[in-house]
Write a structure and sequence with these properties.
Order of helices and strands of chain B: HEHHEHEHEHEHEEEHEEHEHHEHH
Distance between the termini of chain A: 32 Å
Helix content of chain B: 25-40%
Structural class of chain A: alpha/beta
Number of helices of chain A: 14
Number of strands of chain B: 12
Radius of gyration of chain A: 21 Å
Oligomer: heterodimer
Strand content of chain A: 5-15%
Number of helices of chain B: 13
Number of strands of chain A: 12
Largest sheet of chain A: 7 strands, mixed
Order of helices and strands of chain A: EHHEHEHEHEHEHEEHHHEEHEHHEH
Structural class of chain B: alpha/beta
Radius of gyration of chain B: 23 Å
Strand order of the largest sheet of chain A: 2-8-7-6-5-3-4
Strand order of the largest sheet of chain B: 2-8-7-6-5-3-4
Chain lengths: 381, 409
């Protein structure tokens, strides 16, 4: 059996989550918008899931809008806000997921980029630099998917609100790994994704406070508090609810277990030559470590690890079809050659210490024995 | 306990959503849970991702095969609503310099109508055609509505409420002559009507999985390649689906949709024959009652749909009286509202008739016995409600209700 260490890309659906979904994937069905009993059963299931997701996120159930995933949630908040405030400028951090950066680029020239420091953190000075008089929405992710860097959001939120600016945060990688509290954080909107926390792919949420001006971008029905038209993905939503419930219950155990694995792995990594851990000084997710191996090509490393039946990533899966260096590492001013050698390891609840040992052994083998040829390959690319 | 409360309810709302076929679930489970070949299909760096990608490509082929398309012409979305939004707004936005006029019909699904309304807010002009009394588009009227600045026509293949089948070939031909992009909402037709996009003059077609015994939350948009149809993406971030639709693909959902479409191709002909018999049986069982009207053309209609108005009976009361039947008085998406169906209004039905209409949609698991029981329930309920209805009495006394001036209250 191969070893899966790419849990920030997607997680294995939890057995208990699947079990919760199955009753909604069978012979009994109904459209949640139908008034008959078949429809009502589906509607009730959605509402129960909404409450569970709200609890995980520290939000009220009525603030949770279900979508088809994190990408749609990010598109919705940005475009839905701009529909209401067509003359506003928006600012997004340079390390956002592409599902935030690309819609922002699409609004060009009405979007500004918030820089980060070399540890990948958004400081207040970066926010001040990016904001203009017209800026009415900021988006800074709670944690970064590649480096695992956790942002300090409260000073950003405070500053933004003082300047009549709303704040959205993409918490897709945070929820289920660290405590998330929508209401206490003061943010106005938050993105969540089910498949990052052992729920199904294809379902996510945008948590929206009613003070945020926003309207739907997908039309054709008044579902989800009139913010997202379309027949609800009921089994997906039910799965999301169950996954959220389990994530909340086992938040501490999962994060402690991940930290133990990561600590052991990083200790081993440091014994290897020419390895540097990115954003090492910053507070990071317990399960994530991204590092570079000087003189190596990241894609080659990935392939060699895959041959040894170990699945890791160079960064965001969504960009792994391309060979460009990570925009996240770029924003952190990591030298291009080192950024090109990046590997991201993201542990999950199913990983054990023997996975760490296997990964370390594999890396040692590849780095020490193939060093010469890999340098040649990297140089010839 | 009454007889109704103990009797197993009968599901006759297949146009709202269908149960997932067991065979579809079996395929989906291969990509869910601990034993599955799972992974993020966009991860090109490891074999977990490759297996998921191969499964997705097989599903894409199955979907293409049902509708006579090339797999490369199938773009996955979160459902037909998203497909309609992407097609309509995507084409309108892409062609805004060429023209800003769109033609559609009043009986379209809300996903089409509301997308058009949004475009109106953005400065586009939309012509909403009235259908003929039988629900079909008058081709002459259609042609007259086209203008030099018309860039898009959106007409549904099969109507969700009355089940009528539009002549998309004829409409498409007219669009082709004028180089107008033609979008068809095929959510209610795929798996029910033969579709050969290789020959049909259709540029874009929306599909839904959960209307074809597949899972909810997944759909597709057919985007013709030759000649290539251009549209602006509506969802950004990662450039999935050849840049037309970003976001991580739900492998199990796509696999489910693929299997559902594969089964549909195999079983459609047989299923349609069976459903036609059931529908005729249902209609035959009630058509001798007084003041019963079928809405929409009976000949150009999918097999599993019958939409009937029971005059002098109030629709909501009828739904309540038939609480053991899962049926609707309109589309599911608008069923919470007490407004009469806008589709029936567009056919020229008066408020009373529109209000007293019920949509029965049958499908793969509907049995003859269920149809028998349904007929019994309907006859009983309608008779009972008419007994209580003063309007029915007046009608029976030969009073022309249209001549009465009602006091305001």
């Amino acid at each position: 059996m191969a070893i899966y260490l790419d849990n920030n890309a997607t997680t294995l659906l939890d057995e208990n989550v699947l079990e919760a979904m199955l009753p909604y994937m069978g012979q009994v069905t109904g459209n949640p918008s139908s008034v008959h009993r078949f429809g009502r059963i589906q509607k009730d299931a959605i509402e129960q899931a909404r409450a569970s997701v709200a609890r995980l996120a520290g939000a009220r159930a009525e603030q949770v809008i279900f979508t088809s995933g994190g990408t749609e949630s990010n598109n919705l908040v940005l475009k839905g806000f701009r529909q209401q405030r067509p003359d506003s400028r928006i600012a997004v951090s340079a390390v956002e997921h592409l599902s935030m950066l690309e819609p922002a680029q699409n609004l060009h020239p009405a979007a500004d980029i918030i820089a980060v420091d070399e540890q990948g953190k958004v400081g207040l000075q970066h926010v001040e630099q990016a904001m203009t008089e017209q800026t009415e929405l900021l988006s800074v992710m709670t944690v970064n998917n590649e480096t695992g860097v956790i942002q300090e959001l409260s000073p950003v939120v405070e500053f933004a609100h003082e300047n009549n600016c709303f704040v959205h945060t993409d918490a897709s990688q945070a929820a289920g790994k660290i405590a998330v509290d929508f209401i206490a954080s003061g943010v106005d909107a938050m993105t969540l994704s089910a498949h990052k926390l052992y729920g199904p792919i294809g379902v996510g949420a945008l948590i929206v406070d009613k003070r945020l001006p926003i309207s739907k971008i997908q039309f054709g029905g008044s579902q989800e508090n009139n913010l997202r038209a379309g027949t609800e993905n009921v089994p997906g939503i039910v799965g999301f609810g169950k996954a959220a419930e389990l994530a909340l219950e086992s938040l501490q155990t999962r994060s402690e277990q991940a930290l133990e694995l990561r600590t052991a792995f990083e200790k081993g990594l440091k014994g290897l030559t020419s390895v540097s851990i990115f954003a090492e000084q910053a507070e990071r997710l317990p399960n994530t470590v991204q590092f570079g191996v000087d003189g190596f090509d990241g894609e080659t490393l990935l392939m060699q690890l895959d041959r040894k039946a170990i699945a890791v990533s160079s960064g965001s899966a969504c960009t792994s079809g391309k060979t460009e260096p990570s925009h996240v590492l770029n924003a952190m001013k990591v030298p291009t050659a080192l950024a090109n050698s990046a590997i991201r390891v993201s542990f999950g609840k199913n990983n054990t210490m023997s996975d760490v040992d296997a990964l370390l052994a594999a890396l040692t083998d590849i780095i020490e024995t193939n060093r010469h040829s890999s340098v040649m390959m990297a140089a010839s690319v | 306990m009454t007889e109704q409360a103990t009797e197993k309810p009968i599901y006759l709302d297949y146009s709202a959503t269908t149960p997932i076929d067991e065979r579809v679930v079996t395929e989906m489970l291969k990509y869910m849970g601990p034993e599955s070949s799972f992974g993020n299909p966009a991860s090109r760096s490891h074999s977990f991702g490759w297996e998921a990608e191969a499964a997705i490509e097989q599903a894409r082929k199955n979907i293409a095969d049902l509708v006579g398309a090339n797999p490369k012409e199938i773009i996955f979305t979160s459902g037909a609503t998203e497909s309609d939004n992407l097609a309509i707004k995507g084409v309108a936005h892409f062609n805004k310099k060429r023209g800003k006029h769109i033609v559609t019909c009043k009986t379209e699904h809300k996903a089409v109508l509301d997308s058009c309304r949004q475009l109106e807010r953005e400065g586009y002009e939309v012509t909403y055609l009235d259908p003929m009394e039988n629900g079909l588009i008058d081709l002459n009227e259609f042609e007259k509505a086209l203008r030099d600045d018309t860039t898009l026509v959106s007409i549904m293949h099969v109507n969700n409420e009355i089940g009528v089948i539009q002549d998309i070939e004829a409409i498409g031909k007219i669009c082709r002559e004028r180089k107008i992009v033609f979008h068809v909402d095929g959510a209610q037709s795929a798996g029910k009507v033969d579709i050969n996009l290789d020959e049909l003059p259709v540029d874009l077609m929306s599909f839904s999985a959960h209307k074809v015994y597949g899972p909810k939350g997944i759909g597709a948009l057919y985007v013709q390649r030759k000649p290539r149809v251009r549209l602006e993406a509506q969802m950004h971030g990662g450039g999935h689906e050849r840049g037309m639709r970003s976001g991580t693909l739900a492998t199990h959902q796509i696999v489910g949709m693929g299997e559902a479409f594969r089964i549909a191709k195999e079983e459609m002909a047989e299923e349609n024959a069976r459903l036609l018999k059931l529908r005729n049986k249902l209609y035959d069982g009630v058509k001798d009652m007084e003041e019963v009207y079928v809405n929409g053309d009976l000949d150009h209609r999918i097999a599993g749909n019958i939409n009937i108005s029971f005059n002098y009976v109030e629709g909501e009361s009828l739904l309540m009286a038939l609480s053991n039947l899962a049926i609707s008085s309109g589309s599911a998406c608008t069923s919470a509202s007490l407004e009469p169906s806008y589709v029936l209004r567009a056919l020229g039905r008066n408020d009373e008739l529109a209000h007293s209409s019920i949509r029965f949609t049958m499908g793969r698991y509907t049995t003859e016995e269920e149809v028998d029981r349904t007929i019994e329930h309907i006859r009983k309920a309608v008779d009972k409600l008419r007994e209580l209805s003063p309007l029915w009495d007046m009608y029976k006394d030969g009073i022309d209700l249209d001549s009465i001036e009602w006091a305001a209250h």
